[in-house]
Input
Amino acid sequence: MKRIMTILLTLTLCTCLAQTALPQDLTKKDLVREAKAAVTHVDVNQAKLMWDKGGVYFIDCREDKEFRQGHIAGALTIPRGWLEFKIEELVPERDASIVLYCRSGDRSSLGVLSLLRMGYGRTVNLIGGWRAWNKAEYPVE
Output
């Protein structure tokens, strides 16, 4: 009986310790805030200078329907849910310059963090995303 109690106590203790080691109750806002703090951002004017210079991939990580309604001229589309799966097909060079954007900057911040972890070290987030670019009346399709 004493041995069974010791085993049960050990299992209970291990379960409690395992649960406390995991992050608890993270919300979407928490994840976005952490991503935004960890990645590099460019404003719409800096992004336009990069666009003018060329040699930069502009990737729209909004859904296909959003992309079809309008996007930065010349941008590629990879919806956020497919980014990690499709990026190597469209951008095989991990040292490529990439500006990732979405509607406002939340999804793209998460995407930039993933791409950095995958070795795409020259990836930045467009502050304000599509909204900022469109409002600035920069080239769109």
In short: Residues 25-135 form a domain with the Oxidized Rhodanese; domain 1 fold (CATH 3.40.250.10). The first strand starts at residue 41 and ends at 42. The mean pLDDT is 90.
